Amino acid sequence: QKTIAKIATCLELRSAALQSTQSQDEFKLEDLKKLEPILKNILTYNKEFPFDVQPVPLRKILAPGEEEHLEFEEDDEEGGAGAGSPDSFPVRVPGTLLPRLPSEPGMTLLTINIEKIGLKDAGQCIDPYITVSVKDLNGIDLTPVQDTPVALRKEDTYVHFNVDIEIQKHIERLTKGAAIFFEFKHYKPKKRFTSTKCFAFMEMDEIKPGAIVIELYKKPTDFKRKKLQLLTKKPLYLHLHQTLHKE
Fold this sequence. Notes:
Layout: H1 2-19, H2 29-33, H3 36-40, E1 71-73, E2 80-82, E3 84-86, E4 108-118, E5 126-135, E6 146-147, E7 153-155, E8 158-166, E9 179-188, E10 193-203, E11 210-215, E12 217-218, E13 237-246
Antiparallel strand pairs: 1-2, 3-10, 4-8, 4-13, 5-6, 5-9, 7-8, 9-10, 10-12, 11-13
Keywords: Developmental protein
Family: Belongs to the AIDA family.
Organism: Eulacestoma nigropectus
């Protein structure tokens, strides 16, 4: 498991190197090829790993629908079955932001600044972060999923992030009916896993420069947008700011 987790780290480093414009300290293709004999002999490999890397945290992968039965709780008016992603390690390492794609003539890139999210119990959330994904109408990923770092601070009824997300596809190449999802997650010490508290999404017709506030919905995250329930009757929102880059 540790070896596989280290290989996962190397693949992330290679992925980041392919998307970076800087050339120093990159994880090269020749480096990646050194992992081939390890993969071929994964069950018997007992030598020292060729790279000094930390393993990617191992997470339990849930089958579709399984997460809906993982956690049952009633949080006042925010009750209901929830989605959770348990970690095998107690240490959680959110923060998998990707750099902006290279610009192309006539094509538009989108940067979304996640400013803050309004929650009635904002101060009680442990290690909160947001998972950002772009899904088609069937809930299939159109871009890599990104996690924000843990929130900057909690203040009154707001959790503040102030972090930029670079959407990993030109807007013109997103399929009709696509949506950008924001899942607010926090750690539950009693249950020892990271839980989705609520989610929000933004559809293609909402992509325009400037500030936008979007409503929060009850978990589990409904990527197909069929059975949406507002999180609460209170006016709580996710506050975003969009910037469009066009060549």
